[in-house]
Amino acid sequence: MILAATRDAARLFLELGTVTIVLAVGARLAARTGFSSIPLYLVAGIVLGALAPPTLDDALVTTLSEVGIVLLLFTLGLEYSALEIASGLRSGVRGGILDLALNFPPGFAIGLLMGWGLVGALVLGGITYVSSSGIVAKVVSDLSRVTNPETPGLLSLLIMEDLAMALYLPLIGVVLIGSGVSTAIASAVVALAVVGLIFLLALRHGHLVSRAVWHESDEVLVLTTVGVLLLVAGLMERAHVSAAVGGFLLGIALSGPVAVRARVLVWPMRDLFAAMFFFFFALRIDLGDIPPVLVPAIALIAITCVAKTATGWIASAGLDVEARMRAGTALIAHGEFSIVIAGLAVSANFEPELAALAATLVLGTALLGPLATHFADDLARLLPQGGAATVVQRR
């Protein structure tokens, strides 16, 4: 038994080491070319998955991926105060409604056209509606756009999407498995209450949280920060809210010297686990499932790219054309929530083609989104400049 355990440990280390080296090569290429590393991580996952897929335990892969997303949103939250986010949410309601109006209907319509009925249409509508907070956070960071004028409004849209998911996921889960509506409504209410409570804590008592976390020792500070972060993430998951939302809210609760030092200490861990999230996501895509849904997937990718870009563009009215284009293209990428929604459908033995369609949509937009965002300023210069607002500083 000891020998078997040793062999298992050796295989685990060898596979994780191989994966990490592959990711390091992708990061080196990204650093040399100036592109975001996300598309390279995704391509690496697809290629390795097709040629020599690792035999890592699913629970381990899921855990590593979840930690990556939580750390991504936490470090992004460190860049903003609760007051800035509250102001952005108040001013971003119109953008949030526009986001839903432009991006839910395409999936809903394709679902009906595919013959999946009202339930399938509702599921696919949710998949096309929600952008990937993780990918957007990584791209904004990679391209050094955290302090850009369009970023607070972009974050407001993402937060609204995540809050909408707190309502949508329990409800669609009930629709798929046929449980009681009252149970779903209760879960949604609890989820929103937990989010509101943590945000209120960050807004009014963030200084107390920062004081409780602070310590002169780097070791104590990083252990305390990561421990609290994981506890908050677990609490959010128990409340049927994305753990990433909890990470983001904790990030905005920390301020002053704590935020500065936590950013430095946590950043390397964030890069490691976030890279694994994108890699393992692509690793799970079975290329053999894609051809049957390729035509509707391409149509949906094209529609989604236009609709999401229009959402960011309109929601960023008042900024210059480059900023508006950066905001729009940043929203293109779909990711973790879209896969979660498709996973609910698979668990309920719904149409198997829906998962393949969702995976193709996510893969396509996750590749195109960062690339379009990288070239957003160049794309903006191709547009007519007449009437564009230029009152805000350029990047």
Q: What does it look like?
A:
The structure is a single chain. This protein has 395 residues and is mainly α. It contains 17 helices and no strands. Helix 3 runs antiparallel to helix 12, helix 10 crosses helix 11 and helix 14 runs antiparallel to helix 16. The radius of gyration is 21 Å and the shape is globular.
Supply the helix-strand structural class: mainly alpha
Instruction: Let me know the largest β-sheet.
Output: none
Order of helices and strands: HHHHHHHHHHHHHHHHH
Uncertain regions: pLDDT < 50 for 5+ in a row?
Answer: 386-395
Q: Any key phrases for this structure?
A:
single chain; 395 residues; mainly alpha; disordered C terminus
Summarize the structure.
The protein has 395 residues and is mostly helical. Helix content is 79%, strand content 0%.
Fold topology:
Elements: H1 2-33, H2 38-51, H3 58-77, H4 82-91, H5 93-113, H6 117-129, H7 133-142, H8 151-177, H9 181-213, H10 218-238, H11 243-253, H12 257-283, H13 294-315, H14 321-330, H15 336-347, H16 352-374, H17 376-381
Helix pairs in contact: 2-12, 3-7, 3-11, 3-12, 4-8, 5-6, 5-8, 5-13, 6-8, 6-15, 8-9, 8-15, 9-10, 9-11, 10-11, 10-12, 13-14, 13-16, 14-16, 15-16
